[in-house]
Amino acid sequence: MNWIYSTDDPLLQTLIGCFYIFIVIIILTRIIGLRSFAKFTAYDFAFTIAIGSIISSTLTSSTSLVHGSIAIAGLLLITYFFSFLQRKSPALSSLISNAPLLLMDGNDILYDNLKFARIEKEQLIAKLREANVLNYDQVYAVVLESTGDISVLHSSYDKKDENFDEELLSGVRRSTSSSV
């Protein structure tokens, strides 16, 4: 029965740790800002997972509360520092982050870009369904974002009734051979 409950389990310590870590996360997020857990880049996503892992190991007594808090603060400070550097240096930004990639240009599926991104046509179609696209003519663009998310830019009805702002595709690679 020890795998369900053990009298050695530090339940009170875990509950106190939960409260403590919750307060630490709130304070750090208030200091560093809302971008702390944003998922703008692949490294943002990796840092968020790393922080979750630190929280887990801290709450299961693998490490002390102070040690876990310092590790979380360190990672959040690094993300803050890198986001600051990215704003100052476009070269660093392009080195750290992948540029978004166009998967569909209007109703044309860009098969070379799908192949480059290792995305199957069926996965693309699933994203179109998820976005409630009823036919290819509604699609303005489908973009594989730098975070790995897929954005579907489409009209609700007939494209003739809506204007598409091309600025929405600024910074998006049109082909795998071009950088932007």
UniProtKB/TrEMBL annotation:
<feature type="transmembrane region" description="Helical">
    <location>
        <begin position="65"/>
        <end position="85"/>
    </location>
</feature>
<comment type="similarity">
    <text>Belongs to the UPF0702 family.</text>
</comment>
<dbReference type="InterPro" id="IPR023090">
    <property type="entry name" value="UPF0702_alpha/beta_dom_sf"/>
</dbReference>
<protein>
    <submittedName>
        <fullName>DUF421 domain-containing protein</fullName>
    </submittedName>
</protein>
<feature type="transmembrane region" description="Helical">
    <location>
        <begin position="12"/>
        <end position="33"/>
    </location>
</feature>
<keyword id="KW-0812">Transmembrane</keyword>
<dbReference type="Pfam" id="PF04239">
    <property type="entry name" value="DUF421"/>
</dbReference>
<feature type="transmembrane region" description="Helical">
    <location>
        <begin position="40"/>
        <end position="59"/>
    </location>
</feature>
<keyword id="KW-0472">Membrane</keyword>
<keyword id="KW-1133">Transmembrane helix</keyword>
<dbReference type="InterPro" id="IPR007353">
    <property type="entry name" value="DUF421"/>
</dbReference>
<dbReference type="GO" id="GO:0005886">
    <property type="term" value="C:plasma membrane"/>
</dbReference>
<feature type="domain" description="YetF C-terminal">
    <location>
        <begin position="88"/>
        <end position="157"/>
    </location>
</feature>
<keyword id="KW-1003">Cell membrane</keyword>
